[in-house]
């Protein structure tokens, strides 16, 4: 049976700010996603590069529009979109989605940040937003897996500023948070999914391994948090969900 967030999952998400779901995609779906992503020249051509504080480069390709490709079908899948609605307590819509390409030995780090640290500036008044990270490749400490601080979403939005070529959270505040809460390395197998709140602090190290770490991240806003002005990404649009048995 495809995953759908339970009442217990909602409680876990509210407490910790994230929910890790092993096997969110089955092996065949994960393989289709991986093959599509690595053959996708249009996504590659639209990609941009972000530099970390040490000069390392990470590539991301962002899309605001939905189509009939596998990325959009995942965004619209009940297991992800309806689960996110349950976790956030409101109907969600597609804010944007992106491929993150952390290549072997050259993929740079992502500095500590909250997604709402960015999205606040795009007209979203509440942090009633979240993302689902889907591992395309195995994610390990060696190839720069996500690091999160469970429970850090309860601190609210931290100030963000420029760190290298990225926007990162106030280092002094981050240090204070890390003195009070534990850091967690989120190692994942291909097809695993991580739902996380927009105020959850997260980062990743550079990829020093011979293995790539690619991922797809589906980002959602809630209907009640429709931006008061549109600066980037999308306003509320009803999301036409796909049934559980739909082919991805």
Description:
The protein starts with 6 loop residues before the first helix and ends in a 26-residue tail after the last strand. It is α+β, with helices and mostly antiparallel strands and 248 residues long. The protein has helices spanning 7-16, 27-39, 41-45, 70-76, 78-88, 115-119, 171-178, and strands at 18-21, 48-51, 57-63, 92-102, 110-113, 129-135, 146-148, 160-163, 166-169, 184-186, 193-197, 202-204, 213-222. The model has no long low-confidence stretch (mean pLDDT 92). It has seven helices and 13 strands. The strands form three sheets. The protein has a seven-stranded antiparallel sheet. Strands 5-12-7-10 form a four-stranded antiparallel sheet, with no helix packed on it. The protein has a two-stranded antiparallel ribbon with strand order 8-9. The chain has one domain: q2cbj1_9rhob like domain (Jelly Rolls), CATH 2.60.120.
Structural class: alpha+beta
Would you identify the CATH H-level superfamily? Answer: q2cbj1_9rhob like domain
CATH architecture: Sandwich
Which percent range fits the helix content? 10-25%
**β-strand amount:** 25-35%
Radius of gyration, taken over Cα atoms and rounded to an integer in Å = 17 Å
Coarse morphology: globular
CATH topology, what is it called? Jelly Rolls
Q: How many discrete domains?
A: 1
Strand order of the largest sheet: 1-11-6-13-4-3-2
N-to-C SSE string, H for helix and E for strand: HEHHEEHHEEHEEEEHEEEE
């Amino acid at each position: 049976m495809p995953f759908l967030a339970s009442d217990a999952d909602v409680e876990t998400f509210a407490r910790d700010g994230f929910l890790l779901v092993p096997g969110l995609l089955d092996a065949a779906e994960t393989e289709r996603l991986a093959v599509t992503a690595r053959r996708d020249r249009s996504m590659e051509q639209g990609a941009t590069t972000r530099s970390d504080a040490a000069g390392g480069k990470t590539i991301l390709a962002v899309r605001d529009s939905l189509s009939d490709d596998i990325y959009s079908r995942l965004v619209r899948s009940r297991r992800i979109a309806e689960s996110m609605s349950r976790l956030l307590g409101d109907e969600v819509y597609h804010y944007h989605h992106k491929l993150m390409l952390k290549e072997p030995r050259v993929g740079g780090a992502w500095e500590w940040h909250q997604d709402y640290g960015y999205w606040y500036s795009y007209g979203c008044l509440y942090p009633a937003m979240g993302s689902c990270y889907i591992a395309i490749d195995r994610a390990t400490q060696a190839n720069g897996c996500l690091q999160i601080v469970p429970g850090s979403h309860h601190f609210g939005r931290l100030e963000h500023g420029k760190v290298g070529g990225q926007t990162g959270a106030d280092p002094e505040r981050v240090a204070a948070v890390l003195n009070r809460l534990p850091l967690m390395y989120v190692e994942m197998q291909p097809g695993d999914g991580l739902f996380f709140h927009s105020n959850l602090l997260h980062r990743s190290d550079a990829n020093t391994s011979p293995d790539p770490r690619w991922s797809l991240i589906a980002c959602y806003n809630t209907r009640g948090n429709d931006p008061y002005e549109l600066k980037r990404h999308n306003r509320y649009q009803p999301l036409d969900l796909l049934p559980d048995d739909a082919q991805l």
